[in-house]
Amino acid sequence: MRLLLDTHILIWLVLNDRRLSAAQREALGDPENIMIVNPVVAYELTHLQRTGRIALEEPIDRLQELTGFDLVDLPQTVWRCVGSLPDVHRDPLDRLLIAHSLADNLTLVTADETIRRYPVACI
Fold first, then answer.
1. CATH of 2-117, one of 3.30.70.20, 3.40.50.300, 3.90.1150.10, 3.40.50.1010
2. What's the pTM value of the predicted model, to 2 decimals?
């Protein structure tokens, strides 16, 4: 399975946070699964670090070394998909994550209940 990580999931993974559900831990720990981070998450993580909103100082490339995720670009199909999403969530970064998940048939790993209201595969 190809897993697209939401920003908080990446943070929780690195910090081994207890808020990760059993299903999320199982999926993230399965060596058969591919963990994917896109530029939206990389940007949001960097922004949270710069503004001091999270206690995680390692840059994205170090986190990649620690966890083994693939850092990928957004495919062109995301831009078409994001425009067709229902108006459930107003957060533009989350909408890009949802569109990327739909466009590339990825399973989105998130604890965000609003995201789960979209027709997107989630753990």
1. 3.40.50.1010
2. 0.95
